[in-house]
Design goal:
By secondary structure, the protein is an alpha/beta fold. Helices cover about 30% and strands about 25% of the residues. The protein has six helices and nine strands; from the N terminus they run αββββαββαβαβαβα. A five-stranded mixed beta barrel has the order 5-8-7-6-9, surrounded by four helices. The structure holds hypoxanthine. The site of hypoxanthine has 11 residues, from β5, β8 and β9.
């Protein structure tokens, strides 16, 4: 596995001739941030030997290298989900490759369902912690070159970046929510009982991604910052208006893009 990670990173590094400082994983439908990247190079996942083959319909998955907020970044447009049938190790493979490409910090984003009853569609939630209900990608022989057997998960989401995000958002006049992201396997959305269960165990938002990549990042000692865009309210009796949800999602994505950009600039 380690050889495969190194080989893939070397292949990409040779191809792009660019050493990123920051890695960004963009949630499904949250790819708009790439329009703000001053692109140096872009590589389709399908061109990269040993990269998982994308099942994402509609748009191709790719790595985009360039400048954002004055820093060298690599953005993953399209991620791999456990529910698509990838093993947990396949899901986190790109994060490990990005680490070997040189990233020193990881930014993650996702769309999720609000579990906290005070959350509204279109809210931006800074992930302060998570509950992982997806099979852990570190199960199996430990790759000690990547990290320790029993990684500490305190302050999984970097307190300094969370603090900085609060300051940036205040300057931008953007309201932030803060909370615990529950990563479930999907692909079903939660039943009402399951949303209530998530709330009772301390969750604020429910999604189907993110926790595996964050675990792999923390294993390698990378500081992580994460944002969830709340696209629906799980415990609400009303069915969300689809168009409204999309509109809210698009507005929230713009706010997220501005926040990521200024945060990266200020790091
Ligand atoms: N649950 C899980 N994943 C999601 C949801 C949800 O309600 N909304 C968007 N992604």
């Amino acid at each position: 596995m380690l050889e495969k990670i190194k080989r893939t990173a070397q292949f990409v590094a040779d191809k792009v001739q660019f050493k990123p400082q920051v890695g960004i994983i963009l949630g499904t439908g949250l790819g708009g941030l790439v329009e703000h990247i001053e692109v140096h190079a872009s590589v389709d996942y399908s061109e990269i030997p040993d990269f998982p083959v994308s099942t994402v319909e509609g748009h191709r998955g790719r790595l985009i290298f360039g400048m954002l907020g004055g820093k060298r970044v690599v953005a993953m447009q399209g991620r791999f989900h456990y529910y698509e049938g990838y093993t947990p190790q396949q899901v986190v493979f790109p994060v490990r490759v990005m680490k070997f490409l040189g990233i020193e910090t990881l930014f993650v984003s996702n769309a999720s369902g609000g579990v906290n009853p005070t959350f509204r569609t279109g809210d931006l939630m800074v992930i302060t912690d998570h509950i992982n209900l997806i099979p852990n990608p570190l199960v199996g022989p430990n790759i000690k070159e990547l990290g320790t057997r029993f990684p500490d998960m305190h302050h999984c989401y970097d307190p300094r970046l969370i603090e900085l995000a609060g300051q940036v958002a205040a300057r931008q006049g953007v309201e932030l929510r803060y909370g615990v992201y529950v990563g479930g396997t999907g692909p079903t959305f939660e039943t009402q009982a399951e949303y209530r269960y998530y709330l009772n165990i301390g969750g604020d938002a429910a999604g189907m991604s993110t926790t595996p990549e964050v675990i792999a990042a923390r294993h390698m000692g990378l500081p992580v910052f994460g944002i969830s865009i709340i696209t629906n309210c799980g415990l609400s009796e009303e069915k969300g208006d689809h168009e409204d949800v999309q509109k809210q999602g698009a507005r929230a994505e713009k706010k997220m893009t501005a926040l990521f950009t200024e945060l990266i600039a200020g790091m």
